Amino acid sequence: MNSPINITLNLPPVEFPPIPSVVIPYSRDACFVDRSATFYEICQKCAVPGSQTALVGLSGVGKSYLAIEYAFRTHERSPGTWVFWVIASNAARFEQSFRDIADYVRIRGRRNPRNDIFQLVYCWLWESKEKWILIFDDLRDVGLLNANANKEGCLANDLETTTIKPHGHRFHCERGSVLFTMRDKEEARKTVQQCGIINVGPMDKAQAFLLFEKKLGSQMSRNDVAELVAALRYIPLAIAQAAAHISQRASYYSVRHYLEKIKWYNHETAASHDGSQRTQTRELKNCLINTWKISFDYIRKIQPSTTNLLSFMSFFDRQGIPAVLLRSQNGRSKEEHPDDKEYGSSASSTNSDRLREDLAMLRNYCFISVNADGTTCEMYAIVRLMTRKWLQANNEFDRWNQQFIYHLNAKFPAGEHQNWQVCQAFFAHAMSAAYQKPEGWQSLAEWATLMYHAAWYALAKGSATDAEKLAAKSVKARRMALGESHKYTLNSVEMLGLAYNLRGRWGPAEELLRQVMEMRRTILGERHPETLTSMNNIAFTLDSKAYLSTAIALMERCCQLREAVLGPRHSSTISSLQALGVWRAKRVHPDSRG
């Protein structure tokens, strides 16, 4: 859909809060190895009321797994304690996690776009009578906390709007504690005190050996296993990927085979760097890269469709990748598979079977994990990074980017209220696409439509900054691909004007909206529904600017035309009449609330 939009309000149903539980998108790891000293330190620091603790270490050392295990153990020990998980790797995931929390605990006003979702959750935590733990996983930019925690917000309900002031320093509350997982120690120091930082490094020899045994069993040469985990620098993710690779080839592939291969890869990698670069950090990263290479090269050789799927997935945000988006692609080109029409046929069964096989292989080789809900999956950060680098090196990056844009655009719906659940699940991936502008006229047009729909959803949920950025990208791309006066270009310009309106930039908003109205009036005529939509939106902007009399006059004209063109019972006519009634009441009784 590329139709213009109107502003409407929906009253929320009465809801009752659930009992405390663990709100985490991941299952407990059956192969978890207790790193007793580190885990004891986590428990001790997080037990202090109002504490803020950070697990700091390189990707792949197991920070998130420690946090997940701590979350489940805490709830077992204290069933009345809430445990919340926030994916903090980027702004879109950060916001979606807060919306998930608000949905789960059923915070009143969470669906009102005038409300700040962060302030709603912060205030709920502050006022909660139960204890709680808030875990921020993979926080890379502490600016996300500073931008959203220490500001005034608004709580709008059916009767009034109330200003909310932040309570103290970020999340400090005697009933709650906060745990971060982070890669950068300097960023961690901006977030917590030095005494709250826990350094997480590779495992010790005994822990690494036990992890390998849990992953692969104990029917192996202990000397070979000890030598292999040492060659893998005792990194949990590298050990898991090596064990997965050996397990998948168990009938003719041994620990010794893998050991010889990783030694050769490590030697080749070390030889490509001079001595000044051979730091411990470089060695640990290279080890993760090499375990990826070994499995990727093998999978590409025996089952190319699986590496095709991995290539496609690498363009998504790495977390919360919905399986439904993968079913529409499954490694095929958009020319071969333009839509979902064949899924009712025998070809559908074949595609579904292949997708299951490909996902199973990626999971078995420890390239992805499937989340607790079974409907989404997640790529490990190093896997995503190395896959994208491989695509760039092999001149396949643009091809797969175009595939990604095409299929995400085909599935991302308009931002209407009934589509919010789907939009929310896809939004982080649209934000990823926003920084991956494709080449080619057709792909650019598809990208512009995706940006438009994502901006629509951002506007509907009250994220004015995201709406403005996305709409601006859509405007620029559509002007380039379609021209200044194309109806889709006008829709994008109108969206940008509405985003300005939401941000309180009413002057620029009115200017853009009037441009759209005049062009529609010239091209379509004054009585066309899209022209009337422009008239409606300008009236709302004038009301926001406190030009009440002018807003009423314009809305009266809009209502007259909508009744004549659409009929008195049309939803757009009713919406405009309701707004007109509220504004007339405001003019008679200026202190009345609308």
From TrEMBL:
Positions of region (Disordered): 329-351
Q: Where is the composition biased (Basic and acidic residues)?
A: 332-343
UniProt xrefs under Gene3D superfamilies: P-loop containing nucleotide triphosphate hydrolases, Tetratricopeptide repeat domain
List GO molecular-function terms, semicolon-separated. Answer: ADP binding
InterPro entries recorded for this chain? Answer: NLR-like, P-loop_NTPase, TPR-like_helical_dom_sf
**One Pfam family this chain carries?**
TPR_10
- Name the coiled-coil region(s): none
What the entry lists under PANTHER family is as follows: AAA+ ATPASE DOMAIN-CONTAINING PROTEIN-RELATED (PTHR46082:SF6), ATP/GTP-BINDING PROTEIN-RELATED (PTHR46082)
**The protein, known as:** NB-ARC domain-containing protein
